[in-house]
Input
Amino acid sequence: MPVSTPPKRGFVRQFYGAPQDHPYGEQRWKNLLHEIQYAITHPSPHIPNYTIYVLGKENHRYVEGLGAQAVLVDPRPFLYPLRGQLHRNRLTCLQMAAKDFDEFVSLDWDCHPFIPIPDNFWERLAQKNAFQAPLTRYRYSKCPWRKVDGGLVPNASWMYFRDPTIPQQFNEIYEASQAQTLSDGSEETVAAYWTDQQLGGWQGTEAYFQHFETPFILTQFSRTIFPHHLETGKHRVFCHSHEWLIEKRQARLMKSIREKPYG
Output
């Protein structure tokens, strides 16, 4: 009788881009390096290992110089224009991760677990769609194809994948002729278009919660905590908050570490 192989599961992060071309400016690039350094030099005991996928030889040297192992996906720091399609480069990394894992969670560098991950973590995720991400509200519309709720999109700080074709499907949305009207350069807009397609169009927040909302992350973004997260916040495992919700001790450490030079 054949023995079934357990699925390969894991957590991944990505690093891509270049300082001279970063669309958000020099300070945002420095902040990113700061977040990367903190995550690598202060690893969480709740995630002992995660895989880092990198675009760019300089970026790869930077990560390994901090003592972490990383997968060099491509020697170029970006494959798509940083102005207009910055985070499409993330999808290149996610497509590689989809080849290495049967299911995985992609984390932003400022997304950290603050309590132990439950033993039934992956089983809980298996109860919903093969893609899950916390719903987040922007103050402006990112979904021009919707008549209502254009500012509600999946938050890319924490994304779960159980179907290896989904990152490629996201990339195909970018490639579509209407991509310029669908996307502001954000993978969140593309993810919103994809989730809407799965349900035959935007069906409202409750439908999103039923199919795509993950139970494991508390997220604060654009100074707004979506109400659904407050209702279940005590059950959340991860926080994504640009330091706003990270434990005070961790926040102090994050501010105190000396920035490692890049390059």
User: Anything to note?
Assistant: The chain has one domain: 9-256. Confidence is low (pLDDT under 50) at residues 221-234, 242-260.
